[in-house]
Specification:
InterPro entries: Acyl-ACP-thioesterase_N, Acyl-ACP_TE_C, Acyl-ACP_thioesterase_NHD, FATA/B, HotDog_dom_sf. It contains eleven helices and 14 strands. By secondary structure, the protein is of the alpha+beta class.
Length: about 425
């Protein structure tokens, strides 16, 4: 009503005298009945404050209309606004629908804001340090931990392998093969690992986020060395260090190959001039046989899911097979702290393997109560062909508690 009154001051529409006289006569002949409701409405209308336009009070005409000479009330003058339909209900409905849609959109776009929640920090990682180091974060999932509530050695090895592949992809060197460059794909060449050294200072637990940094260097004339450094992403504590040596193999003939010059031109710009994160384990890995092995596990066969895109068993699977023959008392009271592996031959889907293990101290029951010790391992085919030679070092699971007990015993003595 106020808008109508304001508009009438600016958009007044004059009516003809004849029409107004005829209307006045009709209104004069009609008798209006006074009512309480009409009076209340009239008071409320008169109580309206005059509107302001551009900071000044606009002079408006009364809503109830003016009286003619006969005392009859004339209708308010016709204006442009009061001839339009009332859009307020339609506008209110549109506003309600818009607000409801906006609320639903905000609910769909909702993300957790708590500081203890990790919001997708993983992706494929990033290249740092002048394009020579690749860094990627991993969250330790509930299905990646074992009975000790820590990540398994297979989980850590899978993280190392994943960062190696993502490093090649981020650098634009990933062809059709498993980590093979475009020139390697043209020549049917693939990378195979020949040696791996790993030292685990501490195993991460469920919910921890680890940062894996990896880089490559030259290893002799026809090899490549890849190093890894695993740390806690929040504290920076070093958890795992690993180094490995890789060579090329022809995918068709399954024979080792020299690095072609075209491939060398692809990978050498990414080589770092740095020492390995672990000093080379110069101790020779012994070959076990039926007479020297204390524990033997037979009948190990790869499944279809154990094969990678190059149609051979993934090297992480070998670690699980090696530990199949480890004594159960060792697995229960100790944890793997270091290992050195030499990959001598690949195996396929139809291979049947045997896992052999011997403990440095022949008295296993005493060894698990004393402290750290070493184990020798061999993974071989049924015909005796060697697949992997290995050596592992084990420490008590509660190393700090054992050290404190030894210190107290020494002080008492």
């Amino acid at each position: 009503m106020v808008a109508t009154a304001v508009t009438s001051a600016f958009f007044s529409v004059t009516s003809s005298p004849d029409s107004s006289d005829s209307k006045n006569k009709k209104l004069g002949s009609m008798k209006s009945k006074p009512s309480v409701s009409s009076g209340s409405l009239q008071v409320k209308a008169n109580a309206q404050a005059p509107p302001k336009i551009n900071g000044t009070v606009a002079v408006t005409t009364s809503v109830e209309g003016s009286k003619n000479d006969d005392g009859a009330s004339s209708p308010p003058p016709r204006t442009f606004i009061n001839q339009l339909p009332d859009w307020s209900m339609l506008l209110a409905a549109i506003t309600t629908i818009f607000l409801a849609a906006e609320k639903q959109w905000m609910m769909l776009d909702w993300k957790p804001r708590r500081p203890d929640m990790v919001i997708d920090p993983f992706g494929i990682g990033k290249i740092v340090q002048d394009g020579l180091v690749f860094s990627q974060n991993f969250s330790i999932r509930s299905y990646e931990i074992g009975v000790d509530q820590t990540a398994s050695i297979e989980t850590l090895m899978n993280h190392l392998q994943e960062t190696a592949i993502n490093h090649c992809r981020s650098a634009g060197l990933l062809g059709e093969g498993f980590g093979a460059t475009p020139e390697m794909c043209k020549k049917n060449l693939i990378w195979v690992v020949t040696r791996m050294q790993v030292v685990v200072d501490r195993y991460p637990t469920w919910g921890d986020v680890v940062q894996v940094d990896t880089w490559v260097s030259a290893s002799g004339k026809n090899g490549m060395r890849r190093d890894w450094l695993v740390s806690n992403s929040e504290t920076g504590e070093i958890l795992t260090r690993a180094t490995s040596v890789w060579v090329m193999m022809n995918k068709l003939t399954r024979r080792l190959s020299k690095i072609p010059e075209e491939v060398r031109g692809e990978i050498e710009p990414f080589f770092m001039s740095s020492d390995p994160v672990l000093a080379e384990d110069s101790q020779k890995l012994v070959k076990l046989d039926d007479s020297t092995a204390e524990h033997v596990c037979k009948g190990l066969t790869p499944k279809w899911s154990d094969l990678d895109v190059n149609q051979h068993v993934n090297n992480v699977k070998y670690i699980g097979w090696i530990l199949e023959s480890a004594p159960l008392p060792i697995l229960e009271s100790h944890e793997l702290s270091a290992m050195t592996l030499e990959y001598r031959r690949e195996c396929g889907r139809d291979s049947v393997l045997q896992s052999l293990t011997t403990v440095s101290d022949s008295n296993t029951e005493n060894a698990v109560n004393v402290g750290e010790f070493n184990c020798q391992h061999l993974l071989r085919l049924e015909d005796g062909a060697e697949i992997v030679r290995g050596r592992t070092r084990w420490r008590p699971k509660h190393a700090e508690s054992s050290a404190n007990m030894d210190q107290i015993s020494a002080e008492r003595a």
